Amino acid sequence: MAAKRSHSARAGATNGGRRLVVVAAFDVVNFTALVEADEERVLAAWRELRAEIDPLIAAGGGRIFKALGDGLLVEFTSPVEATRTSLIVQEAVARTAAGQDAATRLELRCAIHMGEVTVEGTDLLGDGINIVSRLQAHAPVGGVLVSAAVMDLISGRLSQPIEELGPLALRNMSRPVHAYAVGPKAPGAREGAREGARGGTIDSFQRRRPSIAVLPFVDQTEDDQGKDGGASWFSDGLVEEIIAALACLPELIVISRSSVLRYRGQVHDPERVRRELAVRYMLTGSVRRDGGRVRLSAELCDCETGTAIWSDRFAGAAADLFQLQDELSARVVTTIAPQVQESELRRVLKKHPESLDAYESVLRGLDLLYRVEDDPWEKALPLFERAMGLDPSYAAAYALAATCHGERFYEGTSPDPTADHLEAERLSRLALAYDRFDPLALSLCGHIRSWLFHDYDHAIELFDRALAANPSAAIAWLRSSATFCYIGETREAKRRVEIGLRLSPYDAHVFFSYGLAGLAAYARGDWLEAANWGAKSMALNPRFVGNLRFLAASLAASGQLKEAHEVGRALLRVNPTFSARKFAAGHAFKDAEQRRLFGDHLVLAGLPE
To answer: What span, in angstroms and rounded, lies between the C-alpha atoms of 77 and 7?
Structure first.
């Protein structure tokens, strides 16, 4: 009934009115030649196929407003439903075609576009219809193609292979239309993705993400009302805060609070928790209020081995209990996330690379990034590519692969700079198409847009989306600080890098964070502080070129020429072809004078012009 009401409401629109609609265009492949060869049987096959697919379209909320001899134009109100229904229709057509001979086998192309149209009775006319009608000619046989307008609204909401086709020139139209192939018939879809489309989408990240249960903390406060009466509200609130904060991390599956309440007052057995909640880790703890102080102890346990992998104690003044609750939960979360990742990495490193799934491949690739050795990009990139092959909609894998290509290009170590530059662009756009809400992918792609392509406005938009998805995403705060350096907003850059360091003090790549702090100090002209941060970064990773450049420049700018020359020599050992003026001229600093000054400082550090 709902579908019928929506159909009639759309059909009854005022003639000549304008509205925004989603339109799917279906067209039978090679229909004219098939009809010419055997008109009667082919037309009968088309009528039978219509009897099968028309109900599928209606069930998906579609209204067929124009039935052509060899195709259909269908109106939808939702781009997600339009895409999902079109994929279902194509699956039904493929099943039917499998039982037909070549003379009557019908296959469809489908394209979907969203745009404004003119309403004429039950018909829709205008530029939007012209675009979708011409777009379907570019769709893969048996597949679905969508315009960028549709992709912006479905990305991250459908787990299907996606292949970016780029801007397509449409017949008799002056402007190209950016398009994507979606589903198992996308040109780049792997066999595994096709299996996923038929029997439930393959999502190895969802399947393999580490899971954690935060069990009720024991309240040890001596209280007139007893432990369960007066004081437990504080421990319960603390656990709720920790669960909410951990749930923002896309790399963790967090069991809901309602599922763990039954463990209150019990001895926490790791094997039982693992069996009943299907989790890999559990966090337990206790809270004690004593006078004006609150003490918290917490322990992270691997439920599979039954061993504690981390424990710590926290304390604070009880003057403002709610503020203290927030502070304690934040400190636990910023410690837990890297501990879980480190534990997962230890687990992965024990496995043979051939046995890694998508999530584990990404973990191992992350471990290789920025390593203190030659060509970390060459070693990490195949692992991210493997993850993309195993899980073709894994946004973070695409973003990390794009980062590898971008770093090779930026460092001047690329065997083919043009190809790396193009691949960084392609993969970063695909990452955003697959998941518009993954903080890691958004942050990496934002950094790429800014640092590699100098697209600052788009970069800031991506960082804003990352922080909206997870306000505690340290990577978003840290990487966005670089963009604010580039555009000259150095106070904001400093604020962001400080927040990022506070949120992720135990990051395995903290040398990268120190390098960003050095960049922020250099950009605002605080050469001594920049050199101090750069020295801290170099002590942890003496081959991190991104830091060595600014450390050399900062030392030279602050008059420490001997030290600057030493760092310059270290930089040239890693990147022998480095050219100070060329690099500075192409740097992401928006201000030309800032780029010129950067080049002067690099030359002053003894680096070749």
So the answer is: 10
In CATH terms, 493-609 corresponds, of 3.60.140.10, 2.60.40.10, 3.40.640.10, 1.25.40.10, to: 1.25.40.10
Convert the pLDDT of each residue in 350-371 to its tens digit.
666 666 788 888 888 887 876 6
Q: Which three-class secondary structure state does DSSP give residue 357?
A: coil
Domain positions in the chain are 2-200, 208-348, 356-471, 493-609
Cα distance between residue 77 and residue 286, in whole Å: 52
CATH number assigned to the domain covering 208-348: 3.40.50.10610
Dist. CA 475–CA 132, nearest whole Å? 39
Question: Which residue matches tokens 């100070």?
Answer: 580
Mean pLDDT of the chain: 82
**How many Å is the maximal CA-CA distance in the chain?**
93
Q: Which CATH number fits domain 2-200: 3.40.50.700, 3.30.70.1230, 3.30.565.10, 3.90.550.10?
A: 3.30.70.1230
pLDDT for position 466? 87
| pLDDT tens column, 536-555 | 999 999 988 889 999 999 99
CA distance 493 to 478: 9
Instruction: With beta carbons less than 8 A apart as the criterion, state whether 29 and 107 touch.
Output: yes
* C-beta contacts of 164-170 below 8 A and 24+ residues apart: 164/426, 164/429, 164/430, 164/433, 165/138, 168/135, 168/138, 170/131, 170/134, 170/135, 170/138
Domain 356-471 and domain 493-609 have a common topology: yes
Q: Give the whole-angstrom CA distance, residue 322 versus residue 263.
A: 24
- Give yes or no for a contact between 124 and 117, defined as CB atoms under 8 angstroms apart: yes
CB 573 within 8 A of CB 526: no
- For residue 455, what are the CA distances in angstroms to 12, 254, 261, 409? 45, 35, 48, 17
Instruction: Tell me the three state secondary structure of residue 313.
Output: strand
The dihedral of CA 201, 206, 207, 208: what is its sign? positive
